[in-house]
Amino acid sequence: MQRVLVTGGCGFIGSAIVDQLADLGVDVVVLDSLAADVHPHRPDYLRSDVRYITAEVQDPEAWRQALGGVDAVCHQAAKVGLGLDFGDVRNYVDDNDVGTAAGLWTMHQQGFEGRLVVASSMVVYGEGRYRCAEHGIVRPGARLISELDGGNYEPPCPVCGASLSWDLVDEDAPTDPRNVYAATKLHQEHLCAAYGREHAVAVTAFRYHNVYGPRMPRDTPYAGVASIFRSALERGDAPLVFEDGGQMRDFVHVADVARANVAALLTDSPYDGPLNVASGSPHTVGDLAEALCDATPGAPRPVIAGGYRLGDVRHVVASPQRLDDALGVTAQIGFAEGMAQFVTAPLR
User: What is d(CA 316, CA 296) in angstroms, rounded to the nearest whole number?
Assistant: First the structure.
C-alpha cells in the first residue's frame, strides 16, 4: 500500500485530496497546524482512517515524524489569498517559504526520493497573456493607481497604448508575481524544483486557478471571491463586484483539483514541472456573481461596486491542455453545475 503525506490536509483543497486518496485505499498521513484563525474548531470532516499530526510546517521535527515510510509528498499547506496589505508579508513568508524550506530540509536529511507535488497558483503569472492587434503578444506592466482610480481597468498595450484582448496562458509563459502571496508561491516552486534537481525527484507544481467548492473558508480576508459572494447571499446581501465585473478568470471545482493531485501522486509516470489546473471554461467575475444569484432563490442581483484591490490583475486565463496531455485529467464539473451545487455547499 502506498503512503502519501498531505500537508495542509485539513484545509479546503487538502481535505478533498485526502478524501480521494483514502477512498482509493491509500495510507494517508496529514500534517496540519489546525491554526485557530483557519480552524476555530476541529473540522467534523476529518477521517478515522487517516493519521493526523497537528504541528506547524515550519517545524522540521513535525516533518520528520510525518515523513516516516512515505512514498510521496503532497504539499498543500500555505497561507492563501491576497491578504490585507504588505503588513502580511512576514506571515506569508513564514507559512509558505519557511514552511516549505523546513520540509525540503527534512526530506534532504532523510534522503527522501519519492515524488513531490506542490500547490502553486496562477498568480505567479501576474497579468495573463495579452494580444495587441498591431504588436501581437505583449506584456503590459502593472496597472497604475491613477488609472484604476479613474475606472480604467484594462491594461493598455505597452508599445502603442491601444486596447488589448486576453489570450490563454500556458506553462511556458514568463512569471511575474505582483503581490506578496504570488511571490511566495513562485518561491515555493523554485525551492521544490531545486530539491528535485539535486535529488532526481519528480516535482509537479500545480498552478491552481480560482478553486471553489465545499469547505471553502468564509468571511476572511483570505477567502476566495466565490466564497465572499456566497457569504453575502447567505446574509441576504447583494454580492459586491469590484471594478466593472469584467475580470476574466477560470473557476475550477475543488473535486477536479483533487483529481489532478491524485493522478500526479499515483501515476506510473510522474510529471516533472508546472501544470495549470483550470476548467478550460473561463468566465468573468460578474458571471460568477450572476450565476450564484441565479441559483439562490430570491437573491438580490449583484452590485457593480467599482473600486479595486491593489495587487489584483485584470485577466488571467489558462490552457489546461498540458494537464490533460501529461496526466489524462480534464475538469468534470461544469460552471453551471458547480455553481448550483456551491450555493448550498458547506463552507468552513
Answer: 27
Give phi and psi for 3, each to the nearest 5. Answer: -120, 130
Dmax (CA) for the chain in angstroms is 60
Q: Which tens digit of pLDDT belongs to each residue from 152-209?
A: 999 999 999 999 999 999 999 999 998 899 999 999 999 999 999 999 999 999 999 9
- Alpha-carbon gap, residue 122 to 176, rounded angstroms: 10
Q: How far is CA 7 from the centre of its chain?
A: 14
C-alpha cell at 88: 502580511
DSSP 8-state symbol, 5: E
**What 3-state class would DSSP assign to 291?**
helix
Q: How far apart are the first and last CA of the chain?
A: 31
What pTM was estimated for this model as a whole? 0.93
> What span, in angstroms and rounded, lies between the C-alpha atoms of 175 and 178?
10
* Residue 58: count of CB within 10 angstroms of its CB: 18
How far apart are the C-alpha atoms of 223 and 164, rounded to whole Å?
Answer: 30
On whether the CB atoms of residues 275 and 204 are closer than 8 A, the answer is yes
Q: Which residues pair with 210 in a beta bridge?
A: 251
Distance, in Å, from the CA atom of 264 to the CA atom of 6, rounded to the nearest integer, reads: 13
Instruction: Report the alpha-carbon distance of residue 273 to residue 158 in Å, rounded.
Output: 30
